[in-house]
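Example (one chain per record):
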Amino acid sequence: MTSPSVIGPGISCQRAIAFSRRLGDLPKRSHSTTFGGNPLACAAAVAAIDEHLRLGLAAAAAERGRQLHDGLRAIASPKVREVRGLGLLQGIELKENAGPTLKLLQDRGVLALGAGPTVVRYLPPLVITAAQIDAVVGATRSALAG
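Predicted structure:
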């Protein structure tokens, strides 16, 4: 599996993830990269991974994700069909077009994305706080009340 996105602070560092027991060895000349492996990109990647570990971002993301999921599920609105997600990636499937709700959220200071015509998708940063999650849930409750 490859992942071409950045993992450092704006430094392109492609990475390949493989499990040799499952895939075996890569054939010769079957792997190449434009940006991977250069010293700057590798140093940025190592620093980013170190910060993730130091700040406990994986555990915090799991905890904040549960908080977001539970908060969204607690919203009693006839507009909501389903709340689903994993970790901080959460979505509310509505029984109507998501566009107006996305606009109301934006007006309340929450930037959410559409995922198809009826889903409001939440992608908060790994460093989001419990208070910020509460604010997002409150803004969503307000947006869905109308």
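Caption: The longest strand covers residues 80-86.
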